[in-house]
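Researcher: Final request for today, and then I'll write up notes for the group meeting. The sequence and the SMILES for zinc ion follow.
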Amino acid sequence: MDHQKTDAIVLRVVEFSETSCIVTMFSRKLGKISAIAKGARRKKNPYEGALDLIAICRIVFLHKSSQSLDILTEAKLERRFRSASRDLDRLYAGLYLIELLNLLTDEADPHEMLFDVACLAIARIDSDSSLKDALIEFEIRMLDLLGHLPMLTRCVGCGRERKTMNRVNFGLNEGGVICPECRSGKQNIISVSSEAMELLLRLTNHDEEKEQGPNLLSNHPAYAEVRRLVSKYILHLIGYPPRLQKYLGNL
Ligand SMILES: [Zn+2]
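Model: Predicted protein-zinc ion complex:
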C-alpha cells in the first residue's frame, strides 16, 4: 500500500454507498485508475467540486496492491470545466472526450503525453476556440498516441505506397487505405475523396510548423466527410458507438 500523488481528469463518478462514490480518473502518472472517495456524497465533503466530470485535479490516493479498491484521500481542483453550465455543445464535446479516454485506455497503463494532450483539448473545448477543430485534433492525436492511427500513405494489405491522391478505399477492419489489388473480398470499406485524404494527412502531421488560423480545419471543404470517417473509425475500434457520439450532431 503506498500513497500516490498525481494530476488527473475525472472520467466517471458512480454512487457506491450512501456517502461514498467510486471515481474513475485518467491520471498523468498511473493512467486510468478507479478509487473510492469516502464521504464524497455528503453535503460537506472534502473534495469541493474536484470530482465533477471533466474536472482536472491534483489527487493523492492510497494504491492497494491487492484486488481491493484504491482509496482517494485528497482531491484538489485545478481546473473546473466551466462550459458545463453554459454551453451544451461544449459540454457534450467534453463528455465525449472523457468517454473516449475511458473506453480506449486501460487501468495501470500510463500515457503521460496523452494526459497532456487531453488537458490541452479540454482547455480548448472549454474556451472560445473552434470546437470542431479542438475535438477532431484531439481524436486524431489520441489515436496516434495509443497506436491506432490509420495507415494513410501505404496500402495496409501489401504495403505499397499510395500513388495518387484520387479517391481511395479505406478499410475500417484493416485500419487504413487499401489499393485496388487488395480490395477484393474486403468488407467495411469506405470510399474516401482526395480532399478528405488531404485533410486527414494534414491532421496526422503534428509538425510544429502546422498552419494556424481560425477554424482552419473545420472550414476545409472535406471536413464533414472526415468527421464522419473518424467517427466511424472510432466506433469500429471500440466495437459499438460511444454513448455521446450521437450528441455531436452539430459538429
Ligand atoms: Zn495493396
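Model: The mean pLDDT is 91. The radius of gyration is 20 Å.
Researcher: Thanks, that's everything.
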